[in-house]
Structure formats: C-alpha cells, structure tokens
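SUBJECT: A protein chain and its fold
Encoding: whole-number codes for local backbone shapes
RECORD BEGINS BELOW THIS LINE
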Amino acid sequence: MVAAAVEAGLPDGPVLELACGRSGSALALAAIGRAVTAVDISDVALGQLAVEARRRGLAARVECVLADASSYPVVRSRYAFVLATFYWDERAFRAACAGVRPGGLLGWEALAAGPGACGPYRIRHGELGARLPADFVVLDERQPDGRSTRLLARRQP
C-alpha cells in the first residue's frame, strides 16, 4: 500500500494508520520522513512497533496510540494519507475518509467477502469504492489474491 501511495504522488503531510498492528507501513512511511500516528487496540502490537521504531531510529516520527480504530477521534481533513490493512469497520472507514485532506490519499485493504467467506469484518470487492464520499476519485481498486480487496483513492482538492 505504501509503494502504491508513493507512486500515486503522496502529498506532504502527516499520516494516520488505523488498526496498524506491528505495522511495516508505519515504519516504511517514517523512514521516508513522514510523521505517522499509528492506532491499534493491541498494546502488545503497539509495543512491538515502538521497539522496532526505536531500533531503526524512527521513534520521533511514529506516535503509537492505544485505541479502538472504530471509535478513534480522527481529525477532519488533517492527513495526507490515511490507511488501514486487513481491517474492515464502517465507522472507521467513514472517519478515515473524513480525515483525508483535500489532495490526500486513502488506502484501505480489507478481507473480502464471497462464497464461503462472509462475516461482519469482511466486505465484497468493489464496495470500498462504492462507499467513498463523492469528493474522492478511485485510483486503483483490486482484489489481489482473492482473500482481500484493496482501494487507493484521492480526495479532490
């Protein structure tokens, strides 16, 4: 997701990653100079992320926040890039969209629903793009492996 965002023209500014886990994405973004707010409900995962950020000399760029992504108070129009990987929650998705600044990017990957794979934490391929607010343009939406669905979109300036 990070490489696709950089290739698409990631604008300057802070990044928010929801449901980050141990987050290679947060580390990769911090390594290219981005300030990253990494939110997760797991103190263990956040602890591992913080240790790795310190080990790599990136601790000053990675803020770890212990919170449930579905209720985290995202600041409107603050972030150049908001992302989540292998996570689906409608409230978090709406908040993430609102948090993207004009010209910024939204990157989202969720487990895909389909025959034999359904549940509240899955979404059908194509639904991420369909749920975007009107001021977003889909740059890429694909189902890379049949297990997940991935979206990259830009909020119009």
In short: The chain has a mean pLDDT of 95. The beta strands are 15-18, 36-40, 62-66, 79-84, 100-112, 122-123, 136-142, 148-155. Residues 76-157 form a domain with the Rossmann fold fold (CATH 3.40.50.150).
